[in-house]
Amino acid sequence: MYKKNEILIDFNKNFHPKPIYERYSTSSTYIPMRDGVKIAVDIYLPEGLLPSDEKVSAGLVQARYWRSAQLRKPFKYFIKSLGKKDYIKAFTKFGYAVLFVDVRGSGASFGSRISPWSEDEVNDDKEIVDWITNQPWSNRIVFSLGSSYAGTTAELVAVANHSAVKGIIPMHNEIDPYLDIAFPGGVFNEWFVKAWAHYNGCLDRNSMKGLGLFALLLLKSVKPVKIDKKKKMLRDAIQQHSANLNVYEAGKNIVFRNDHWEDKTIKYFSVYRYKNEIEKSNVPIYYWGSWMDGATSNVVLESFLTFENPFIGIIGAWSHGAIWYASPYATSKKEVIPNYEFQFEAYVRFFDACIKGKIPSEKTLYYYTMGEEMWKKTNQWPPSGQIRKNWYFSKNNVLSASKPTEDIDSDDYKINFKATTGIKCNRWYAQLGYPVIYKNRAKRDQKLLIYTSPPLESDMEITGYPLITLFLTSTHEDGAVFAYLEEVDPNGNVYLLTEGHFRLIHRKISDTEPPYKILVPYHTYRKEDSLPLKEGEIAKISFGLLPTSVLIRKGHKLRVGIAGADKDTFLRIPSEGNPTITIERNKKNASFIDIPIIPND
């Protein structure tokens, strides 16, 4: 087990990165692609290179949300970096070049976008890396890294199998956009997709209107490349962006994984589609995610289980991009653990280990147990010693360790479409930069059907994927279930530990092989496997919640909350009507949650 920042040195603990350079030079240009599209790039080089560093390795970041911006007065005189994490200064001081690219169809780059992470965009990677390695300052070693959209672009660099790419750092991204962000459990993440499309549209038009008052005051424009003094090239590029796809308009009518927009399905731009190419590269992967940031912890675990590449995974307790500390127990913004400086040193240690061939041969995961506030290490998932325990829905809204004995018993719940996990504070809003602060959910739980356990007789560590099985009937043929695993302290404060989402028409469990390895019931989410509910017929609904690692203290209680809506985030299903569901809880049809537990030593 590891406290605080020791996690960052375990895989390369004998290397101690030392800052050498205080300043860096800046330049920009266009890189021509095979189809004539010009890609904008900023190049940052350590200033005053020592003879031993005449040629340097490069870190490549491919951005969807502008590689850099022109700021208005007076901000341009004192703001050097818009992000809280200054990658440029962090890497150039250790002797690395840093390149920020506007992916095609965005920022100052030419072209248009038919989808996120299109084949054209993926194919650009090889030519961009070729260009880097042909620069006079390049030692022909490239690392690809990024967070969020850029995390996926970083991972997809491996597809080209370029010999210069020695390591990749995908952070807080998705390998399956259908389940990981757009349709968790098959339920449309309407707020995120709509907001993401809106903000991208503003950026692609080079318009600050719609980005908020602060952006209007701060930002003047995307930054043109240096040779474009009169911004004519920038205007031409922005004009080409007018053909970009609006992902909300394209996605709002999608229900099934194999539904099409244009002539494509979401698989077309999913990382898992490229599994064979990524494994063939054998490039080491340093994957970062969080228990509290969208589904990024799930992405790290599925990638750990799926890819055969050398692999180091980090799952912490932080918001999107590892900016703020995030925990069920957080009530305000706090400094992230580990802090930014140590995060950057971890990246540099990874780079060094890749160059020297010191990445461990055995895949490794480091994960943070919330509540215990402790880092842990494992070479397998689930971790060694994990056991699973069923907790059953029982009468009087009790969550019981014993299976029901009643022949007939159930609970009716009229869906409350005012139920919510909040605005600008939950794991899905975090994907657009908001902190994750759920606070006390006692009042919000009044809109849910809840089951609460007696006080725990000893501490309980929950680490892994909780699984839920419901036996239910509904007055409607479709609907959504939101399941929340919570903790109740002795004062009655309620903390949201993790959650799961599921659209009921996807309930068929498939015996076919998933496209990547999972540890939850497999639903294909394909149209041909749709199973609408039938009136009066009990349906078995089994699905996984997002994984977590948390220590629940003795005397605290477990709680499961069941909802049929999360009004400020997800699409209302059904769009009309007021469904009532009946959850069976008897010896024949015992609804329960299966909780993964790490026993106390």
Mean pLDDT: 95
CA gyration radius, whole angstroms: 25 Å
Low-confidence stretches: none
Strand proportion: 25-35%
Termini gap? 13 Å
Shape, per Cα inertia axes: globular
Number of strands: 25
Describe this protein's structure.
With 601 residues, this protein is of the alpha+beta class. It has eleven helices and 25 strands. A hairpin with a 4-residue loop joins strand 11 (364-369) and strand 12 (374-378).
Features:
nine-stranded antiparallel sheet; ten-stranded mixed sheet; about 600 residues; alpha+beta; single chain
Summarize the structure.
The protein is an alpha+beta fold.
Outline the secondary-structure elements:
Elements lengths: L23 E9 L5 E9 L9 E8 L5 E3 L15 H6 L4 E6 L16 H15 L4 E10 L1 H8 L8 E7 L5 H6 L7 H15 L8 H6 E4 L9 H10 L5 H5 L23 H7 L3 E6 L5 H11 L4 E6 L23 H16 L8 E6 L4 E5 L8 E8 L3 E3 L9 E5 L34 E4 L7 E5 L2 E8 L5 E9 L5 E10 L35 E6 L3 E5 L4 E7 L16 E5 L7 E7 L3
Parallel strand pairs: 3-5, 3-6, 6-7, 7-9, 9-10, 10-11
Antiparallel strand pairs: 1-2, 2-5, 4-8, 11-12, 13-14, 13-25, 15-24, 16-23, 17-22, 17-25, 18-21, 18-24, 18-25, 19-20, 19-23
